[in-house]
Amino acid sequence: MSCITCNSTTTPTMKDFQSKNIFTWCTNCGNYGIHTALRRALVSKKIPACRTLTCFDIGCNGNGSDKIGGYNFHGLHGRSIPLAVGAEMANRKVTVIAFGGDGGTLGEGIGHLVHAVRGNYNITFVLHNNLNYGLTKGQASPTSKKNMKMNSSPDGATSELLHPAKFVLSLESTFVARSFSGDVKHMTKVFEQALDHKGFSFVEIMQSCPTYNKETPHEWYMDRVYDVESIKGYDSSNREQALKIAQDQEDKVNGEAREGDLGQKIAIGVLYQDKKSVPQIDRQPNRNGSVGTKIKTDAYEETKQYNISKLLEKFR
Amino acid sequence: MNFKNRFVVKVVGESGQGVNSIGEVLAKALKDNGLFIFGYREYPSLIKGGDASYQIDIANKEIKSSSAQCDVLMCLVRSSFKKYLKSVRENGSIIHSVVKLTPTPEEELFIKENKINVEFIPAKDIAVELGGKRIMSNTIMLGAIWQIFGLEITGLEDNIRQIFSRKPEVIEINLKCLNTGHDYDLSKLQKPKLGLRETKNFKDDLLMSGNHAIGLGAIAAGVRVYYSYPMTPSSSILSYLSSVYHETGMIVKQIEDEISVANMAIGSMHMGARTMIATSGGGFDLMTETVSLSGITETPFVCVIAQRPGPGTGLPTWTSASDLNLAIYSGHGEYTKCVVAAHDIASCYTVTQQAFNIAEKYQIPVIILTEKQIAESIFQVDKMPQDIPIERHIVEGQELEKVISQDRYKNTETGVSLRWLPGSCDATFDANGDEHLSDGSLTEDAVMVKEIYEKRIRKEEYLLKDLPEPEVFGSKNPDLSFVGWGSVKNSMLDVIDILNERGKKKIAYLHYEYVYPLKTEVFQKFAKNAKKLVLIENNATGQLGNLITSKTGVLLKNRLLKFDGRPFFLEDIIEYIEKIDHTESEE
User: Fold this and answer.
1) Nearest CA distance, A244 vs chain B (angstrom)
2) pTM value?
3) Which of B94, B113, B304, B383 is the most buried if burial means most Cβ atoms within 10 Å?
4) Which three-class secondary structure state does DSSP give residue A130?
């Protein structure tokens, strides 16, 4: 392992990202696969545990905050994005990954998602989309299907649902990917690309919830997903095309597609990526060298007594 | 009420008419020419229209407060004439540029009864006649007011040259306007008899607002990140830090909302970058869940609340000290926090630096309270106070080899555990907003939960020992003993000074700068020694007084409370003291 201060380097292993704590998720919960895939991706990208910060939402995903190695921060409901973004602004040497559920991210904290996309902060964000509020025992979330009968809506949810990938693609996002929690190998591949991306990497994991969402278990997704890479000549730099593809989830989840349509299928993989993306931290004109000298350090290592005497001239 | 050693000029007009510019130039010129000023602004919450004022209290020694009344009212528009006429003292003057101003019978009566001199200067016509633009009427009015002080016009000319240094083509005409205004016959008007300051290097004096001092304090304290969502009266911290971010290299970012601001601050602080945020009461309401998160994860957190009157949007551009309770009781659950209240330039500068040391030493949220009266008023100081050495209490270097994950939230005597930065060491931990064990792992075990809960609360004991006691000013054997916090101090000390000169009532004032947790020893002595104890606060319910009572049992029955959006003017306090005299003699 290696640290900023100790500098001894060995290749990180899966063990480094393990935790002594016992998992508390339901059997068959999608979270197991997500954690495994993320650990694999971190190891394959040679990111040491001591240079990883995972930021968690409140919800079932958040109960995993002490179940994965590296540094963790279990923040507030719906606020894992600004927490992670703040950490990333202060220290570029630590890889920051944030998690959020569909409720926290698209309900409580949707503003944060929009502005993190706009700002293109250099974090990987994993949306655990299990189409409901699991930890509070199965209420409808912004991604629950209309008319779906849930704990808080016994006659069915009455609002239209929100499609995460389509929504994020409609903003000036720089990385939008989808995977599903039953395919660890695929998720690992997507996470690797997300970790490589310089900017806000949005990864939606279509996740099973064996307890509260009986409609879309792993098998349901398994029957429908296909990787965009299997489309001949798919150009992930084409936002229009990505938007069109992302529509399939809408068609499918709403149950409006006819048999045999493309709508039968749900595309996964990296739907869109802007490879020229410049992350927010590198856009600061007073630090990136575009005006004045470039500041090479990160904010976390810059705290020292500053002499203000020159600044006082303006007040004389 | 007349003050022997104070002269007050109030510039009034429509918001956007240049009231501030006239005030700022005049304040600086007076400072540069050997006087001492305090600048107080009133303005409505809009960009153009509505009445605005810039009041300059002038003396030949340090002052930090405003009078309710002025000696000279400089008026640029009819509506302001109506609104501010009654702020002119007996024998005072009005200089105005309002064409065809006919006072109403009621106004006429007030002018007559108070023997007020009214002088009209057709400033806009003069400006145009001289070949300038109508806006240059402001320069004419500036020249006119300068005449009253009997100071050399060259002193003001230098300031005009400086202001227009980027527009050299308008310097000549502005100087012409200035001199024409200066030569206007205003011999009837009363002139100040202040005398100049004895010190010679007054040009080096600084003119700045409390928000500037907080910004400078943050820079000195090594703050490297500033996040903010604009909210009056905190916004000028954001604009100041942005204006100097090339010099400082600080990350200064406007963020989409206060909830993000607070959470980003936690994120940056967690990584070890000193991060400051500021808002006003309403914005802080949105942050309070995050204050609580700082409490349980023991992440240092520093937020400035520049107070204005609530509830709701309240009076966005006016002053108040009604968010002490908000600060003290912010955030759900129980945990240690610290609330400090600044009052002037030195205080804003040092308290900001101290706040970071306290936040990092105890790993707690620290809230800095200021008020619009402090945040936006213009103070004159000869120098900034000594910097406070940075104390971070972060495990670094070789020491990192010894730490284990369980040290992060280890139960210690003081309740403070070791803190190290993510990325610095193999001993990783979970900063867990859920209740946790010493390495941050989640727990709901009754014994463990109680232990760590107590640990976080226990910090308060040690913090309290660390904090300075309140300070006592004025008479050692007082007739009246005041207790207060915030900008009240500035007014109280000026009042004590005035009353000392008059040789009247002996007054003492006890000031809380470090408000919470509350130090009580000095207060207890003060209360014991007091013939009459008076609570003075810029709010309606006496929030500090109630806190003191809850901690000491001492009742503060006499209360001078003000909650109309205005600060304590000298007259408010002096009249209260005189009235107490009166009621006592009746007793």
Assistant:
1) 30
2) 0.96
3) B304
4) coil
